[in-house]
Amino acid sequence: MTRANKTQETNKSIGTFVAEDYRTAEVFEKYGIDFCCGGQATLAATCLEKDLDPDKVLQEIAAARSEPLQRSENYVAWSLPFLIDYIVNTHHVYLKENDEQIAAYTQKIAEVHGAHHPEVIEIAAIFGKISTDMAEHLKTEEELFFPAIKRADAAVSNGKNLDSTDRDLIKTSLEKLHREHEEIGDAIHKIRHLANDYAIPDDVCNTFVVTYRKLKEYEDDLHKHVHLENNILFTKAAQL
Ligand SMILES: [Fe+2]
Ligand SMILES: [Fe+2]
Questions:
Q1: What sign results for the dihedral spanned by CA atoms 84, 175, 23, 9?
Q2: For residue 185, which of 37, 123, 160, 217 is within the disulfide window of CB 3.0 to 4.6 Å?
Q3: End position of a domain, from candidates 18, 49, 73
C-alpha cells in the first residue's frame, strides 16, 4: 500500500470500513472497537486511543476483505426497501422474540444471586429499561420512519419530489433514532462492563450461565442492527 493510500485508509471512519464491507467488523470486534454507535471515529484516532499498531490492523482488514464479496453480505449495495425488510425480518424479529425472555432471566438471577453478586441487580434494572425503550424504538421505525423512507425512495426512483410531510418526518426521526441508538448502545455496554465481559462466576446456576450467554448474543445482534441502520440506512436516507 502506498503512503497516500495508507493515509486515506487510516483517515476513514470505523463505520465506513464496516459499511463498505461487513467482514471487517470481526477485526474491530476482536479489539473491542465500537463500529455501530461510536463508528464515526477514524481508524487513526481509534488505534491511538487503544494503543494499536495501525499497520497491523490494516493488514487484518485487508485479510478480511481478501475473498470476493458475496452479494448476500454486500448490504451497502442493497436497495433501501430490501435493506429495511431485512432489518425488520432479522433484527427486529430477534428483539421481539428475546427482549421479554432476557428481561425475565435477568430478574430471576437478580433475585437468586443478587446477594452474592450485586451487579446482577443493576443489570436487571438496566435491561428492563432497554427492553421497554426498545419496544418504543422499533414501533417508531416500523410504523413511521421505515414507511416514510420507502415512500421517499419510490418518489426518487420515479423522478418525483419527496412529500414534504415525509421529508420532515425523516429529518426529525433521524435525530431521535440516532440518539436512542446511542442511549441503548451505552446501556448494553454498561451491562457488559458490570458483567465483567460475561465471565461466569464459580458459584452460580444454569440460568445465570444462560442469561450471560443471551446478553452477549443480544449485544452482538444489536451491534450489527445499529450498524446497518446508522452507517448504511440512515446515511442513505439522509441523502434522499
Ligand atoms: Fe431497528
Ligand atoms: Fe434502530
A1: positive
A2: 37
A3: 73
213 half-sphere exposure, CB direction, 13 A CA radius: 6
Ligand nearest to the CA of 181: 2
CA of 25 to the centre of ligand 2 (A): 18
Task: Say if CB 183 and CB 133 are below 8 A apart.
Answer: yes
| Tens-place pLDDT, residues 172-222 | 999 999 999 999 999 999 999 999 999 998 888 889 999 999 999 999 999
Shared-domain flag, residues 56 and 154: no
Q: 182 and 195: one domain?
A: yes
181 C-alpha vs ligand 1 centroid, how far in Å? 9
In this structure, the answer to whether residues 119 and 231 fall within a common structural domain is yes
* pLDDT tens track for 145-162: 999 999 999 999 999 988
Task: Report CA(181)–ligand 2 centroid distance (Å).
Answer: 6
Can you give the pTM of this predicted structure? 0.86
Q: Residues 140, 213: one domain?
A: yes
The rounded Å distance from CA 224 to ligand 1 centre is 10
